[in-house]
Design goal:
There is one protein chain. By secondary structure, this protein is an alpha/beta fold. The chain folds into two domains: about 5-145, Type I PLP-dependent aspartate aminotransferase-like (Major domain) (Aspartate Aminotransferase, domain 2); about 215-335, Aspartate Aminotransferase, domain 1 (Alpha-Beta Complex), CATH 3.90.1150. About 40% of the residues lie in helices and about 15% in strands. The chain contains twelve helices and twelve strands. The strands form three sheets. It has a six-stranded mixed sheet with strand order 2-1-3-4-7-8, with helices on both faces. It has a three-stranded antiparallel sheet with strand order 6-5-10, with no helix packed on it. α1 links the parallel β1 and β2 (about 25-30). α8 packs across α12 and α9 crosses α12. It is globular, with a radius of gyration of 22 Å.
């Protein structure tokens, strides 16, 4: 990736998705999202592809997988491959646009029986403190590249980059007679600590048996609490092919304006319940506005944002507290929308 390259991303995501593209010198090309869920619209992606497109970066908002089947078929189609122009050896090896899943929310999600991390060419997970599985901070990359890519070699190179360009880590250097090492590039310091890894291993051990089932149970309680109420649009989290990781319960207030949504949130806070909004579309931020992005070009992203409230979902949230959240949301909505 570099100057002159383009990466297609959704306008509706956290800033990290776009910021990492800017850091490489490439251009983020933002497209709109679906009306039914919060994920990138595949037809909008198709229309945005040019000879400069090197990566498509879908984002699994709230843990609900994007349409990876359609995206992978798209980049592998002869029509799209004919547009592709490789500038680097890695781009030549792939011979097509790379699909990089921003899977920060979707650890544990499933698509057609496959787990998140295997949907795209590369997937990036976040283990930040607020994520389903945490190491307090940090994350992981999952590679699923076709031949002739060598995953062991990629792993080796990433280790070098994460240790200031050093060819051996501390464990390798501690072996008898193995203390010498080389510096082969000006790398970075971004490896996970052993303490963080230990936390992650414990979290991983109980993830499928405890963490994920509890999050699903909370989603089910919210679903029942807001069903048959036309004021609310519940998030899509399960279909025949897709199962969410139940990371965010993104409830929309039907017909609400942005100002009304904000007032509803204020009343919810006053009732002793903390909620959030995921996310403010990127074109609304000063930095991306200054680069020429206009929220008017992404009507679905703005519409979803103006109505959404993220309700609390975490392992220790009790059924009684979920009921308290539901009551606070309904009461606040009644106060604002009845006027």
């Amino acid at each position: 990736m570099g100057k002159g390259d383009e990466v297609i991303i959704p306008a509706y995501t956290y800033a990290a998705t776009a910021n990492v593209v800017v850091h490489t010198g490439a251009k983020p090309v933002m497209v709109d999202i679906n009306v039914s869920d919060f994920n990138i619209n595949t037809e909008a992606v198709r229309k945005a592809i040019t000879a400069k497109t090197k990566v498509i970066m879908p984002v699994d908002i709230g843990g609900f997988p994007c349409d990876y089947k359609a995206l992978m078929e798209m980049v592998q189609s002869e029509e799209v491959k004919a547009k592709f122009r490789a500038n680097t050896e890695e781009q030549k090896m792939l011979g097509r646009i790379l699909v990089f899943a921003d899977a920060a929310h979707s650890f544990g999600a499933r698509l057609s029986g496959k787990v998140s991390g295997s949907f795209a060419d590369v997937s990036g997970f976040s283990f930040h403190a607020v994520k389903n599985l945490t190491t307090a901070e940090g994350g992981a990359l999952a590679f699923n590249l076709p031949e002739p890519f060598d995953h062991e070699e990629i792993y080796k190179q990433l280790n070098i980059k994460s240790l200031h360009g050093q060819t051996k880590d501390a464990l390798a250097k501690s072996q008898v007679g193995n203390w010498k090492y080389d510096i082969v590039e000006a790398g970075y310091k971004c490896n996970m600590t052993d303490i963080q890894a230990a936390i992650g291993l414990t979290e991983l051990h109980r993830y499928d048996t405890e963490s994920l089932p509890r999050r699903k149970a909370i989603f089910d309680l919210y679903d029942r609490g807001f069903e048959n109420d036309e004021r609310f649009i519940r998030p899509v989290h399960t279909t025949e092919e897709k199962t969410s990781s139940y990371h965010l319960y993104s409830l929309r207030i039907a017909g609400a304006t942005e100002d009304q949504r904000d007032e509803i949130i204020q009343h919810i806070f006053e009732a002793g319940v903390s909620v959030n909004v995921h996310f403010v579309p990127l074109p609304l931020f000063t930095f991306y506005k200054s680069m020429g992005y206009d929220i008017g070009d992404y009507p679905n992203a703005y519409s979803q944002f103006s109505k959404v409230i993220s309700l609390p979902v975490y392992f220790d949230l009790t059924d009684a507290q979920v009921a308290q959240v539901i009551d606070a949301v309904k009461s606040a909505t009644a106060k604002v929308l009845s006027r």
